[in-house]
Design a protein that fits this description.
By secondary structure, this protein is of the alpha+beta class. The protein folds into two domains: 144 residues; 150 residues, 2-Layer Sandwich (Heat Shock Protein 90), CATH 3.30.565.10. The chain has six helices and seven strands; from the N terminus they run H-H-E-H-H-E-E-H-E-E-H-E-E. The strands form two sheets. A five-stranded mixed β-sheet has the order 2-4-5-7-6. The chain has a two-stranded antiparallel ribbon with strand order 1-3. The termini are far apart. The relative contact order is 0.09.
């Protein structure tokens, strides 16, 4: 039988053990509460961040809607203009085919004339198809690119020779200004030739009735070669200037800039320049002329 001292020890220890148990429970509850509080606080922070993100998205929504509306409008204009460019030669081909069927055996001259018109319109359609294919290729990020030394001075001379008769028919002179030695850049010769063909052809096409001059200028600037194509043509109006590189863009008043064409030439030229690490720029004054310029990396022989 336990002694009195043992009972006293048990009596004294029991409250102490209960106290320790209660303290441990309280510590556990406090720790659990602190963990739950931190977790709740993290969730609240996440919710606040999401709410702030949603508010930012909602704030941008009008701007995004405007951008989408502009993109839809540009796409609509593109489809309309391309459809227009396709329908015109198709209608001309159909008309001339009907005329050929109505020709008598002794009207070989007229038959040949209708045939020649059809051949011209087919070339026009082929050019439009090729431009659309090229534009699609240039807008593909993973499209392969050619980088090799190109004598740009030689390309310019080739372009001047190719457009000589067209320029002469409109009374336009063409002139090269730049280094007499070869000016080499890194790029794709065929694509760079197409850029220069488009720009010089525009200078000829939009020249004034009395003619004028198209100047192709090359200027070395450190490790870059600046290319400028200037004309003395009718110029581009201020309201049309920001849009001329848009795909298939046409000015409301065709006399101010656009005449006959698909509206793809400048869009293609700009994308080719961008693929070569440059940017197409334009300066124009209505009635005085236009200057297109872009720069390319110089080829430095190792």
């Amino acid at each position: 039988m336990p002694s009195l001292d043992s009972w006293l020890e048990i009596i004294i220890r029991t409250p102490l053990l209960l106290f320790l148990v209660i303290m441990l429970v309280l510590i556990g509850l406090i720790a659990s509460g602190a963990f739950a509080y931190r977790r709740l606080r993290a969730q609240i922070t996440q919710l606040l961040d999401r709410a702030q993100h949603l508010r930012a998205q909602l704030a941008k929504r009008p701007e995004q809607e405007e951008q989408w509306a502009a993109a839809r409008e540009a796409y609509r204009h593109f489809i309309y203009n391309v459809s227009h460019e396709v329908s015109n030669p198709l209608q001309s081909i159909q008309t001339n085919l009907d005329n050929m069927l109505s020709c008598l055996p002794d009207q070989a001259g007229q038959w040949s004339q209708y045939h020649a018109t059809i051949a011209t319109e087919l070339r026009r359609l082929a050019g439009l198809t090729e431009n659309l294919r090229l534009l699609s290729h240039l807008e593909t990020p993973e499209a392969p690119t050619v980088r090799e030394p190109v004598n740009l001075k030689g390309v310019i001379e080739d372009v001047i020779m190719a457009l000589f008769e067209r320029a002469e028919a409109r009374g336009v002179r063409m002139r090269y200004v730049g280094p007499e030695r070869p000016a080499r850049v890194l790029g794709d010769r065929d694509r760079l030739r197409q850029v220069l063909m488009n720009l010089v052809d525009n200078g000829i096409k939009y020249s004034k009735p009395e003619g004028g001059e198209v100047i192709i200028n090359l200027q070395e600037e450190q490790d870059r070669l600046r290319v400028r194509v200037s004309d003395e043509g009718i110029g581009i109006s201020e309201e049309d200037l920001p849009h001329i590189f848009e795909t298939a863009y046409r000015a409301p008043d065709a006399r101010s800039f656009r005449r006959k064409g698909t509206g793809l030439g400048l869009a293609i030229a700009q994308r080719i320049a961008e693929h070569h690490g440059g940017a197409m720029r334009v300066q124009s004054q209505p009635g005085e002329g236009t200057t297109f310029s872009f720069d390319l990396p110089l080829y430095i022989q190792p």
